[in-house]
Structure formats: C-alpha cells, structure tokens
C-alpha cells in the first residue's frame, strides 16, 4: 500500500525485540487488504442552469430527487441543445470514494453493483469504466439489460448543487451477486443511504445482506449519508441502521441536523457517537470534524492549542488513535477540527465530490492500519485494537488536504496522477 509522501526513517541501537521488523520482511509484497463498496453505478452530468430551470422541472434546489427516465432524457436533450453541459464523469458517492481510495493507496478496491450487459465504445458504461482507476475491481459487478443510471448535477450561479437521478438499472442488484467471502475478508464495507431508499428494490435486500455479512465477520461498515431530505424522511430507520450495523458515519452538517436534530455540528458529532464508533462531519467553508472513541488509558493529549466551543476543551485528546467503543474499558469521546486547507481554493467552481474525497482519506488510514497489523502483527502499534493507524488529528489533516485537491479542480474525483510530495501532498502526514 503506497503512503502519501516519504516517511522519515530513524534508527536506534540497541533495538528491542518487541515490534522489531525482520530483515526478511518484504514491504512490496501484496497483502490481502482491500475495500469493498456497493454503489448505484451512474454517470454524473454537470450542467449550469438558473433557478427558473429548476422550477420548470420541479427539481428541489440543494436536494436530490429521482425522476422518470423519459423526463431525464428530455432534460438531457434540452441541455445538449442549449450547450449547458460542463462535463460527463463517472460518478456516484461510493464510486467516487472507491476511485479516490485506490488513487491514494495505489491499491485494490472492489465495486459491487449493476452495469450494462452490452457495453459499446463511447456509451455511458464505457465512459464509467475508462474514467475509473484501474485499481477498482469490476469483476463482481452484475451485468443487466438496460441503460446506465444518470445523475444530473445542476449548478446555479450561487454554486448550490441540485441533483436529478434517472435510475436506469442502478437498483437491480440481486443478492446472489453479494460475494460473502469477499466482504468477510475486506478491511471495510462502504455503503450509502441511497442504497436503502427503496425497501422494495433488489438493491435494498442486497445491501442488507452485505451489512449482515460484515457484522458477522467483524468488518467495519461505513455509511455515507445521502441528501438531507432522504435522511429526514427515514430518520428512525437510519438511526436503527447506525445503532445495529455502522462503525463509521460520514455526513455534512445539513444531514447531521436532520438525523440528530442538532444545528451545532460539534454537538451533532457528540450525539453520533452514541450510535457509532467514529464520525466524519464536513461543514463546508468551516472545514471538517472527526469524532471518535478511545480508551482512557490510551488517550493522548494534544500538543497544539486547546479550543473550546459548544464542548469545553473538545480537542484535548485529538492526538489519540480512534478505537471501537466495544474495545474500550473506559471509553471517552474525542474530537478534532480543521479549517479548510490554505483557506480553501481561491475559486471553487463546484463542491461535488469533496466529502467523498475526505472519506477516501479516512478509509485509506483504516486500511493502512489493517495492512500494518498484517505485515507486523507484533508491533507496539497493535497491542490494543485501534480503528485508525494515525491519530484523529492527523487523519483530519489528511482528509482536509485530499478534499482540497478535489475542490480546486472541476471534477468530483481525484485525477489519476496525484501531486508528488514535492507538490506538498500532505508532506507531514506520517510524521506523528
């Protein structure tokens, strides 16, 4: 697994036996570490419109809605004729995260979902595969007759994003295409609330089967919240899912408000820890929070300034590594916050995909912990069962930096060629 930047190496003599790396250790060998994600495979179509256009087609501003495929085609042809299309990209929240994860880690991730049985050069399915990292494994996808799903992202002059989805075959994943052995061996299982929107769909049943397998196999389940209106519509259902299955939840402040009925993001993060082990909470121009648990005996105090907001001295133990609450004898809640990297890009044309990029960084760190544990099981870093490889403070810095890379470009995904260390991609990430 490739780490961002070169890690500083120091040698000490004499060397203790505990945690010592054997001279025979092959750091380049491929360990069985991978991420699995279930997605509604779709193509993002980004367009520039005004508020009147949204009103004409009854598209709620700032939200996501599902439209009839015929209406989506009608809107698409109108946009083509009016030359409003900015670009067409492989998309989907989970698809974006899998791609970004594989770019960051230079390692394998596995996508589960449906794709067109017959793929032709230049069609949507072809574009999806061509613009996704080759490290994302598509061999477990279910081939189906029909059209690829489309998600139109409408950008208004105030930079607000609104989505209209044409479903196509995206909800037709059958449960027999959920490979139990693949999920049980994964470092994490990644899902979104969109998969659980329609309880009558095959996709819903397949997703529930997958998270049951993950729970049985002690594989962390990561839930990315969808649009806030969906969260509000099925609030009690999603709270039950969090309580019974989810290890990490990723959300923005609007989704957090609807789910936990709390306008203050830090207090929403605190409430989330009553349901899950760790939380990634993005707050737009105010950066992001990471909230988690650690055993009192493993808590490490920050060396930075201590801050107080709605929670007094909330970042006091931000130098701690996150743990599952069940692994703690005396669990305490820990928090960290970071403002946008370098104040954010000078010009932000589109925020689409920034949260997915931040989540990919978090998942990279979790997989790095699994990788290191498998490679060097007797390392002192694994004397206690931690969830992350790094402190939540460092994970927050990494997530913030990767999010910046997406914000400064007009694409919801990281480019195949990431900046090098000399271009300042999180130079100090692995130093702490």
UniProtKB/TrEMBL annotation:
Domain Carbohydrate kinase PfkB, chain residue ranges per copy: 133-296
InterPro entries in the cross-refs: Carb_kinase_PfkB-like (IPR052700), IngK (IPR046405), PfkB_dom (IPR011611), Ribokinase-like (IPR029056)
Presence of the UniProt keyword Transferase in the record: yes
Keyword annotations: Kinase, Transferase
Gene Ontology BP terms: GMP salvage; IMP salvage; purine ribonucleoside salvage
Domain of life according to the entry: Bacteria
GO molecular-function terms, A-Z: guanosine kinase activity; inosine kinase activity
PANTHER family on file: CARBOHYDRATE KINASE PFKB DOMAIN-CONTAINING PROTEIN, SUGAR KINASE
UniProt similarity note: Belongs to the carbohydrate kinase PfkB family.
Record protein name field: Inosine-guanosine kinase
This protein's encoding gene: gsk
